[in-house]
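Aggregate trends can hide what the representation actually does to any particular protein. In the encoding step, the backbone of a single protein was reduced to a row of integers, each denoting a local shape. The record that follows shows the chain in one-letter code together with its fold in token form.

***
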Amino acid sequence: QKALNVVESQEQALTSSEKFLLRSSAMRDWALGNQRTVLLGLGVVLLAIAGLVYYGAEQKKANEKANTMLSRVSNYYASGDYRHAIDGDPNQKIQNESIVGLRQIVADYGSTPAGSQAALYLANSYYYLGKLDSAEKIFGKISIDYPLIKASVEAGRAAILEQRGNKEDAAKLFESAAKRDKNNPLNADYTLAAARDLHQVGKKDEAIRLYRSLLEDYPGSQFDDAAKRALIGLNVQL
């Protein structure tokens, strides 16, 4: 527990108001509106990391250890119990080992693929608790060179910019995330988020360009429908 407190001191302190923030802040609204992005993103990153190959016995061993720890704490994250996801749960043991939190996994194994996934979970956890500075700090530490992870990081940074009112720069990051990997199933989500941000800041022509790209690339989908409704609202002939 002492070690966890040391690491926590490097991030914004978590307070008793977290549950209230989850229920009432604007960040909750964004998360609910982008639930598909959040949930799909977890699966995409998991698949991406599973496909990475790292050489060296020690690196492989460290990644396996981090992956085991991550699998044990991920249920807290998935259920929205972000405090336990971050801190771990010393009262719960699996194979006689306490459940270690995301913060400690990142501190000890951040350079491994599983550590990078833990960092994404950790950054998102801080975000949902309204800890934007801490979330931004963690996103900034994720340096693994893999397109799907880079896209997830950019989308996370974009969400933070949205909350701070900088929707124009958020749109740039969302659009960049959508271009990282053509096979990323979240590309449409990112593109739609970018178009909405541009629309809201008055960048009409750029928003129309992205909405039209959704019509072309995702005909008959929910994104096609959302784009059509947005274009009609902009008085654009379909």
Summary: The chain is about 70% helix and 5% strand. Residues 1-10, 16-32, 35-44 have pLDDT under 50 and may be disordered. The longest strand covers residues 88-94. The first helix runs from residue 2 to 8.
